[in-house]
Amino acid sequence: MAVVRETNENGKPVVVVGPDYSWVKGEARELSSLFLDKESVEQIGDPSAWVREGSGVKLRFLPCKEEDRVYHRGEGWEFFFVYTTMFLDVGISFPFTEFECGVLSQLKCAPSQIHPNAWAFIRGFEILMEYLGVEPLLEVFFSFFQAKGVRKGVLVTLNSVQGRALFSLYRQSYKDFKEMFVKVTCIEDQFPFYLDEFGLERFPLYWYSEPVQILGMSKRPPLED
Q1: CA torsion sign, 190 to 193 to 196 to 199?
Q2: Per-domain boundaries in the chain
Q3: Which of 31, 49, 63, 207 has the lowest CB atom count within 10 Å?
Q4: How buried is 207 (Cβ within 10 angstroms: 0-12 exposed, 13-18 middle, 19+ buried)?
């Protein structure tokens, strides 16, 4: 918690005790979700359609409040935010794979802190590794992709390491997604699938103020052998 100085409707300074989000930049500060009630969330579809087969996970999509912002922290581990394009367009399923959790942890980013284009690279790499019968490894992934020019308080993007481009399909940027976020949680009485057996986060649930810049590995990656 932090002491945050704001102004009231009359422009007079007030002091509010709460999380300090002054480091967040751009549209994330301004835009609320379009999913503000049960009816709008139901239009997304059955959450089970995006549950990984055999995982046993049962999840729910929850509506947001008008005052919710995608970077806000919950009081505990009751939910995390995602942009719907992540599973509707890119095909990410829940729970995240160990590789996906590893990418999030390596970058110190919550799922909603990574641009949909970057999620497309992550998922595309997994599909390619599955096709080749090779385990997706972080060191190989970051031999081909880098988080360059990471800035505090904005979405983190990935781009190809120079001379090592794997994909061209996702170069056109996603647009009009920044109001399309919901809360993801597990059903009542089920252990949260986003925590490990020790009750620790399997990946960052909420935005970090200092995501990690990764400029790619200098050594030759195994896929080029």
Answers
A1: negative
A2: 27-224
A3: 49
A4: buried
